[in-house]
């Protein structure tokens, strides 16, 4: 029998992350995630491009569209769905707030 355990990790308050800003964060597991404060709220995705692992923190954000700086693959940061020439989706992580602090399921 397989038991699934939800693991939520604290990211803190993140009040200093302004709309349009992105921040790469290392989780205790060593996994790197990219936090993005878009106009529609806080999002979290894989920090490395699924194409050739370019750091997406160096990418461009336009509304809810994130563009990799190397070959210009694009994704919707709410869903991870590929757009334009992208050939693979972007991993998106679930976030929630508790007592003013953000938690990520990763
Ligand atoms: S490394 Fe990101 S699109 Fe190629």
Percent helix among the residues? under 10%
Alpha plus pi helix count: 0
User: What would CATH call the architecture?
Assistant: 3-layer Sandwich
CATH superfamily: Rieske [2Fe-2S] iron-sulphur domain
Sheet-strand content, in percent, reads 35-45%
What is the CA–CA distance across the termini? 22 Å
Please, what is the average pLDDT? 95
The helix/strand order is EEEEEEEEEE
Could you list the spans in which at least 5 consecutive residues all have pLDDT below 50? none
Number of beta-strand segments = 10
Read across the widest sheet, the strand sequence of neighbours is: 5-6-7-8
Sum up the overall morphology in one term: globular
| CATH overall fold name | Rieske Iron-sulfur Protein
The structure class reads mainly beta
The CATH class label is Mainly Beta
The total number of structural domains is: 1
For the biggest sheet, the summary is:
4 strands, antiparallel
Q: Radius of gyration, rounded?
A: 14 Å
Q: Give a list of the ligands.
A: FE2/S2 (inorganic) cluster
């Amino acid at each position: 029998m397989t038991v699934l355990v939800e693991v939520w990790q604290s990211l803190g308050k993140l009040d200093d992350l302004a709309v349009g800003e992105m921040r790469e964060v290392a989780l205790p597991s060593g996994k790197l995630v990219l936090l993005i404060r878009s106009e529609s709220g806080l999002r979290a995705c894989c920090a490395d491009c699924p194409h050739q692992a370019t750091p997406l923190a160096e990418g461009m954000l336009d509304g809810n569209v994130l563009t990799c700086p190397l070959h210009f693959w694009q994704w919707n940061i709410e869903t991870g769905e590929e757009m334009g020439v992208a050939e693979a989706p972007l991993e998106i992580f679930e976030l929630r707030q508790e007592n003013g602090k953000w938690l990520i399921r990763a």
